[in-house]
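Worked Example 4.2. Read the sequence first, then its structure tokens.
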Amino acid sequence: HKLLDVGLLQLYTTSMNEIKEFRGKLGLTQEALARELGISVETVRRWEGGKTQPSPMARRLLEELQEKGPK
């Protein structure tokens, strides 16, 4: 599995803690991460709560966010 440079977010399997740690490394709140990705805050909460996993498209957006940084 390819890992992002932060060493936390795996593109194929993502745990709830990895999303939260990834977000923290970027200095983003749940609201700010949702805004950056164009998704709802509830979606971020479900990821971090372990209820759902990011889709392949969301994983790509997360990778791009890591590479470019927040707006």
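Now turn to a second chain, presented in exactly the same format:
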Amino acid sequence: GTNENTNGLIRQYLKKGHTMEGVTQEDCDIIAHELNTRPRKRHDYQTPRKVYYQECSYCCTYFLKLGDSFF
């Protein structure tokens, strides 16, 4: 399912039948950035980066509260 979904998203940028001839690495990097920074339904329409940093912030706060008793 994931591969087919990703292929469908890439088709928004590169239409079916379009060859990779003339597509530069910069073009691919832009497409990858667009896809990787899309908000996700599974993350309540937040970007993966935002969710990641929220989790990191939560973990850091949790361990800081534990202080020396954790170690």
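Notes for the reader: The CA atoms of residues 1 and 28 lie 22 Å apart. The helical segments are 2-10, 25-36, 48-66.
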